């Protein structure tokens, strides 16, 4: 009702398209979708705030007899319905889509009631390439509490469409509007039957009972603009040291600095009222901290500024955050937390630093323009901060515990440095290792990603580092980033980036130096069957990042009793002799680039032994007893030479 007065004045004299342009789209938006709330329970699990149903499981290991990912998922959910609070016959679930990743398949399910979809519901089951469920995310809604909500609409879809037209003040539409009956859980009235209407750039929900507008979402018209940015900063692209014409000079520009500006496309900008805005699917530039900072807009789509202008920092942030996000997508990963990530290009007054603010999920960059280069003028800083957003959203590294705190900081800071360096290295193959040169000017020692530092002896470095905190996670993180960049040199950007992102999904909430390296190696098993293990191991070994109690590289693994999880591998043949694998539910994996020769080995007490050889597996004198399991995975032949016993109740699996 509220805006009709303004409208009736204009509507007769202008076209329908312009009519909508005249109104600020945000005035029509109505956000009313109830959010799904979870808490961490006493066992450290993410559970629903109300029902305590499990919301996420990062440590799942579920095998089934099925082969298709969708079938595996359904048999999994059948087995675990109680844990997740699902209905016993699964009539509230349908597989909505299956997304393939390089490491396996992600099965997305939608929640249903009375055979009608419940809007904004999602259950992800990750099935790896071996058909094993390893991860779940439960975003189903607690709808039982609403009792039985009817499934018959009192309003037809045509009437609902008319209501939506009236709300938007549109008489006619180009293209077919789409309508669908759904259940919608609103903040004000709970679960209700609704018509979901996709109309132009709008998505409107109209109550199928009363005809009220429940929710009206986002009108975004994506368009490509153009901007000028540093890639990553003028010192690296000009390949010069700080000094001469390449100096801060109280924030002024000059022809030398201007010459380092690159013209780039700005993808998927929002156009509202014929004005281009730096708002896209992966980045929204905002004055979050309310310093009254001017966010640039453009009537042409061109955002051309020089470094002396405040607006330049917005363009830098939009381009580099958007590029960083697209890189993740290109590698087959994503998390919805990274959608429309808010970025404040001048969010920290008089602070020579930049932050990812986890509580509110946005990036914020410091500015002290007169004396120092602003943080958002150096893309090394922007990619680094985005690296933190990846950690928080894609992974779950957010629990700082006392013992691990500094190690975890080192892993996270080193990872953020890796992410920015991996972007820069192919562009400047001879000039990539020193970081944030422009931001540091000539009064900070920049961090590097090509050091030969070793953990733990260099963990508390004496070499100067501009960060004043002691002990210094940023400084110690150079061990981790340097090890990863060494792997990058061996495997290239794509594979290393993929392993890097996959490791985020694996390492849990408090990665330490050794456990992060372990997760990175495990990522290679998930993605590549461990074929890069020897190269990865060598880099980590050089930097002291291998936990010797967990990972052993040898050609002779003999006379051992293995009490817990351990990875043993050989970069040639592997002789295994006199080994007993005996721990409840432990898994020992033996890997060889060549053959594996097994002699006098016992697997007992529910343990699992996996033998994986690029060549043959030869076995003599081996017992698999007491509900244990042996998995033989040879690219060549499996040869039983003598005395091989698998006791009743134990299991043998030859792949
Ligand atoms: Zn950082």
Fold and architecture overview:
The longest helix is centred in the middle third of the chain and has 20 residues, at 311-330. A hairpin with a 2-residue loop joins strand 5 and strand 6. The protein starts with a helix and ends with a strand. Mean pLDDT is 88; it is low at 1-26. By secondary structure, it is α/β, with parallel strands linked by helices. It folds into five domains: 4-30 and 149-217, Nuclear Transport Factor 2, Chain: A (Roll), CATH 3.10.450.40; 38-146, Roll (Nuclear Transport Factor 2, Chain: A); 222-393, Elastase, domain 1 (Roll); 405-528, Neutral Protease, domain 2, CATH 1.10.390; 551-654. The protein contains 15 helices and 33 strands. Residues 384, 388, 413, 416 line the site of zinc ion.
Q: What is the strand and helix layout of this fold?
A:
Elements (H helix, E strand, L loop, with lengths): L3 H7 L5 H7 L15 E3 L5 E3 L7 E2 L11 H11 L1 H4 L8 E9 L2 E10 L2 E2 L4 E7 L4 E7 L17 H12 L9 E9 L3 E10 L2 E6 L5 E5 L4 E8 L4 H5 L16 H4 L3 E11 L2 E3 L5 E3 L11 E2 L3 E2 L7 H20 L10 E9 L4 E4 L4 E6 L11 H15 L11 H20 L12 H4 L32 H19 L1 H14 L6 H16 L4 H10 L8 E3 L2 E3 L2 E2 L3 E5 L3 E9 L4 E6 L3 E9 L3 E6 L3 E8 L4 E6 L3 E9 L4 E4 L1
Helix pairs in contact: 8-9, 9-10, 10-12, 12-13, 12-15, 13-14, 14-15
Bound molecules: zinc ion.
The site of zinc ion has 4 residues, from helix 9 and helix 10.
């Amino acid at each position: 009702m509220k805006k009709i007065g303004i409208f009736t004045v204009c509507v007769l004299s202008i076209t329908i398209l312009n009519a909508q342009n005249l109104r600020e789209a945000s005035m029509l938006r109505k956000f009313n979708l109830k959010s799904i709330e979870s808490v961490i329970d006493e066992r450290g699990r993410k559970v629903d705030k109300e029902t305590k149903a499990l919301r996420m499981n990062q440590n799942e290991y579920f095998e089934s007899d099925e082969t298709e990912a969708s079938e595996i998922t359904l048999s999994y959910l059948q087995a675990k319905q109680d844990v997740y609070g699902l209905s016993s016959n699964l009539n509230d679930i349908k597989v909505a889509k299956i997304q393939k990743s390089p490491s396996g398949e992600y099965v997305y399910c939608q929640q249903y009631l009375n055979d009608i979809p419940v809007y904004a519901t999602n259950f992800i089951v990750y099935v790896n390439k071996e058909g094993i469920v390893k991860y779940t995310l439960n975003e189903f809604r607690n709808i039982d509490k609403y009792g039985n909500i009817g499934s018959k609409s009192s309003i037809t879809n045509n009437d609902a469409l008319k209501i939506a037209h009236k709300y938007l003040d549109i008489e006619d539409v180009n293209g077919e509007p789409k309508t669908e009956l759904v259940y919608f859980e609103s903040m004000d009235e709970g679960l209700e039957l609704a018509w979901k209407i996709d109309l132009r750039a709008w998505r409107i929900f109209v109550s199928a009972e009363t005809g009220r507008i429940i929710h009206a979402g986002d009108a975004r018209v994506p368009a490509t603009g153009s901007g000028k940015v540093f890639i990553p900063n003028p010192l690296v692209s000009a390949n010069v040291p700080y000094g001469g014409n390449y100096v801060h000079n109280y924030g002024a520009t000059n022809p030398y600095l201007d010459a380092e500006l690159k013209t780039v496309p700005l993808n998927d900008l929002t156009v509202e009222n014929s004005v281009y805005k730096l708002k896209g699917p992966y980045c929204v530039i905002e004055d979050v901290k309310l310093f009254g900072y001017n966010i640039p807009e453009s009537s042409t789509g061109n955002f051309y500024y020089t470094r002396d202008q405040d607006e330049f920092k917005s363009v830098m942030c939009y381009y580099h955050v958007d590029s960083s996000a697209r890189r993740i997508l290109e590698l087959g990963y994503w998390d919805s937390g990274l959608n429309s990530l808010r970025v404040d290009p001048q969010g920290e007054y008089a602070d020579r630093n930049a932050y990812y603010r986890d509580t509110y999920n946005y990036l914020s960059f410091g500015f002290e323009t007169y004396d120092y280069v602003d943080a958002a003028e150096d893309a090394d800083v922007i990619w680094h901060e985005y690296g933190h957003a990846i950690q928080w959203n894609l992974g779950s590294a957010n629990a700082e515990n006392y013992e691990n705190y500094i190690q975890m900081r080192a892993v996270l800071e080193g990872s953020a440095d890796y992410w920015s360096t991996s972007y820069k290295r192919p562009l400047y193959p001879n000039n990539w290792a020193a970081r944030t040169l422009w931001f540091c000017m000539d009064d900070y020692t920049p961090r590097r990603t090509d050091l030969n530092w070793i953990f733990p002896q260099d963990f508390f470095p004496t070499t100067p580092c501009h960060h004043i905190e002691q002990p210094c996670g940023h400084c110690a993180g150079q061990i981790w980033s340097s090890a990863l960049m060494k792997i990058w040199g061996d495997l290239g950007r794509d594979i290393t980036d993929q392993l890097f992102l996959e490791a985020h999904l694996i390492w849990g909430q408090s990665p330490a130096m050794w456990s992060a390296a372990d997760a990175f190696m495990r990522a290679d098993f998930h993605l590549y069957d461990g074929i890069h293990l020897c190269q990865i191991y060598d880099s980590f070994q050089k930097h002291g990042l291998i936990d010797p109690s967990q990972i052993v590289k040898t050609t002779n693994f003999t006379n051992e009793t293995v009490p817990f999880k351990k990875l043993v591998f050989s970069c040639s043949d592997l002789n295994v002799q006199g080994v007993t694998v005996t721990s409840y539910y432990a898994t020992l994996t033996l890997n060889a680039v060549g053959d594996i020769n097994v002699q006098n080995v016992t697997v007992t007490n529910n343990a699992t032994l996996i033998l994986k050889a690029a060549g043959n597996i030869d076995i003599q004198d081996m017992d698999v007893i007491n509900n244990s399991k042996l998995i033989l995975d040879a690219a060549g032949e499996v040869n039983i030479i003598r005395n091989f016993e698998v006791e009743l109740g134990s299991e043998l699996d030859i792949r």
